[in-house]
Design a protein that fits this description.
Layout (H helix, E strand, L loop, with lengths): L1 E5 L13 E4 H4 L4 H13 L5 E6 L5 H14 L4 E5 L6 H10 L4 E5 L11 E8 L7 H13 L2 E5 L10 E5 L2 E6 L3 H10 L2 H9 L4 E4 L6 H11 L7 E2 L20 H7 L7 E5 L6 E5 L2 E3 L1 H10 L13 E5 L5 H9 L3 E4 L4 H8 L3 E6 L3 E4 L7 H15 L3 H12 L1 E12 L1 H14 L7 E2 L2 E12 L6 E10 L4 E6 L7 E11 L7 H4 L1 H11 L1 H5 L6 E2 L1
Parallel strand pairs: 3-4, 3-5, 4-9, 10-11, 10-12, 15-16, 15-17
Antiparallel strand pairs: 1-7, 2-6, 5-6, 8-9, 12-13, 13-14, 17-18, 19-24, 19-25, 20-21, 21-22, 22-23, 23-24
Helix pairs in contact: 2-3, 2-5, 7-13, 10-11
Bound molecules: alpha-D-glucose-1-phosphate-6-vanadate and cobalt (II) ion.
The site of cobalt (II) ion has 8 residues, from loops.
Length: 538
């Protein structure tokens, strides 16, 4: 029986850079999740349509997914395609949306944010493009959520999510699918699995840290079972509701077990990690870290080594905050190059219109037009394929890249937990201070351009402002922006890039120090936030 439940709206259901992200306890408030899902349905009119449902298995996934199923049934959804036990990574969900031509999909995840009752929960909503909905759609959903007074839900028993195959819930069909199989098929079509198998047969060693999140089963199947990496190559392979207490963000700060291994004396040849929902990646060699910005540039430069891309690629895009390393590669290969605001949704139109093949972000995100989300395992396979085809180590590949294109020393400084009004004032103040800085000198740098970054989408002609940048005459850059994924308070991100053409062995922290002083000074960070230094540096 369908019930219409009276409800009162919450006022904080605005999606950020990637979906809605809140403290688990906020989402667990009465009707909070139901309101949000009904607000989406009020906008997208789901009757007769088909959606994919995935999740990273975090705390509250099981409860939320049952609610989602029953609200979908009550709203006339024709069919849901759900990953077994409610698990499906963000990239695998994007693939499923495209492969099965569905009208969109949901991934229950707060991505790289910690999980558990005291952690975060979240929902990513994708359209038929396979990518997350546009800012315009999320604005409409937000408007709905502020006035919603009723949602529809089917009163029914919980659905068994462990049984593969099709079942019915009233008039809605539910197909429980293996979340891994179709994704692996896609990867086999892109990369040279035989070459990678040979690499492992010849004794190559790797370690992949799944961080107790969704990619564990994918990684075991792909790297150990299919490609032949030694058993035990995948660390933290069992998805846990609280990620075993880990912060599933693949960077040098949080992936400590992997980092200790890769910088220790018995390091394997190759190391990698993924985040909670499997769309981020970190790449390491023996005692060697590849910045995500360099990784994007290196993958692009080596496209011809990969079966799916060897006949040529369209252009490449990066988020504005990402280093300019890939711009130099695009120019050398004479392909299109785009700079978009932070967030994968801005790449979707560029991929759909065949302007770009590859794209990436400094925040450990890399991907291509094979789907419409960033893809952690894809990036790892790309590196393994380059290594197999070139016979070179991670360090060698990266050093040769620097020798050819120069090195963008790059670091990101995050100032966390700033009261929202303080952060907003800081940004407003900065926006006014920037234009007069054009042409001025600061320390060793001459400022070429200081501005608010505005992106005009060449496809839908929408315009988005996000972040501020100061470009120096020597190619160095300072970027400021507020995070759109924090579940409480504000995070100010300061991104620094220093371009070097011959000095490749310096300490990145020392290299960007001059820029950091300028950034702290211009944004009045200490005076306004009381913080002398960043909370997290990646
Ligand atoms: C962060 C990253 C951004 C990324 C987003 C979603 O956003 O900076 O590059 O696209 O997370 O990643 P923000 O607004 O906090 O800087 V994921 O892996 O959480 O979907
Ligand atoms: Co993620």
């Amino acid at each position: 029986m369908i019930e219409n439940i009276k409800t009162t709206p919450y006022t904080d259901q605005k999606m950020g850079t990637a979906g809605l992200r809140k403290k688990s306890k906020v989402v667990m408030q009465p009707n909070y999740f139901e309101n949000f899902v009904q607000s989406i349905f009020n906008v997208i009119k789901p009757a007769g349509k088909t959606y994919v449902v995935g999740g990273d298995g975090r705390f509250y996934n099981d409860t939320a997914i049952q609610k989602l199923i029953k609200i979908a049934a009550a709203n006339g959804v024709k069919k849901l395609i759900i990953g077994q036990n409610g698990y499906m990574s963000t990239p695998a969900s994007s693939n499923m949306i495209l492969k099965r031509h569905t009208d969109g999909g949901f991934v229950l995840t707060a991505s790289h944010n910690p999980g558990g009752e005291n952690g975060d929960f979240g929902i990513k909503f994708a359209t038929a493009t396979g990518g997350q909905c546009s800012g315009q759609v999320s604005d409409e959903i937000f408007e709905q959520s502020k006035t919603i007074n009723e949602y529809k839900i089917l009163q029914a028993d919980d659905i068994k999510l462990d049984q593969l195959g099709t079942q019915k819930l009233e008039n809605m069909e539910i197909e429980i699918v293996d979340p891994i199989k179709d994704y692996i098929e896609l990867m086999e079509h892109i990369f040279d699995f035989n070459a990678i198998k040979k690499l492992f047969q010849n004794g190559f060693t790797m370690c992949f840290d799944a961080m107790n999140a969704v990619t564990g089963p994918y990684a075991i199947e792909i790297f150990e079972n299919i490609l032949g990496a030694a058993k035990g190559s995948v660390l933290n392979a069992t998805p846990k509701k609280d990620f075993g207490g880990l912060h599933p963000d693949p960077n040098l700060v949080y992936a400590t077990e992997l980092v200790n291994l890769m910088f220790g004396n018995n390091a394997p040849d190759f190391g990698a990690a993924n985040d909670g929902d499997g769309d981020r990646n970190m790449i390491l060699g023996k005692k060697f870290f590849v910045t995500p910005s360099d990784s994007l540039a290196i993958l692009t430069d080596n496209y011809a080594l990969i079966p799916a891309y060897k006949n040529g690629i369209f252009g490449v895009a990066k988020s504005m905050a990402t280093s300019t390393a890939v711009a130099r590669v695009a120019s050398a290969h004479n392909i299109g190059y785009y700079e978009v605001p932070t967030g994968w949704k801005y790449f979707v139109n560029l991929m759909d219109s065949k302007r770009i093949t590859f794209c990436g972000e400094e925040s450990f995100g890399t991907g291509s037009s094979h789907i419409r989300e960033k893809d952690g395992i894809w990036a790892v396979l790309f590196w393994l394929n380059i290594i197999a085809a070139s016979g070179k180590s991670v360090e060698q590949i990266t050093r040769e890249h620097w020798a050819k294109y120069g090195r963008s020393y790059y670091m990101r400084f995050d100032f966390d937990g700033i009261p929202t009004d303080v952060a907003n004032d800081l940004v407003q103040n900065l926006e006014q201070k920037l234009p007069p800085l054009n042409g001025q000198s600061k320390g060793e740098f001459k400022i070429k351009l200081a501005e608010v970054f505005t992106y005009n989408d060449p496809v839908d002609h929408s315009s988005t402002s996000n972040g501020m940048r100061i470009l120096m005459e020597d190619g160095s850059r300072i970027v400021f922006r507020l995070s759109g994924t924090s579940s409480s308070g504000a995070t100010l991100r300061v991104y620094l890039e220093k371009l070097e053409h011959s000095n490749f062995n310096a300490d990145p922290r020392e290299m960007v120090d001059g820029l950091l002083q300028i950034a702290m000074d211009i944004a009045e960070i200490e005076a306004r936030t009381g913080k002398k230094q960043a909370d997290i540096t990646t």
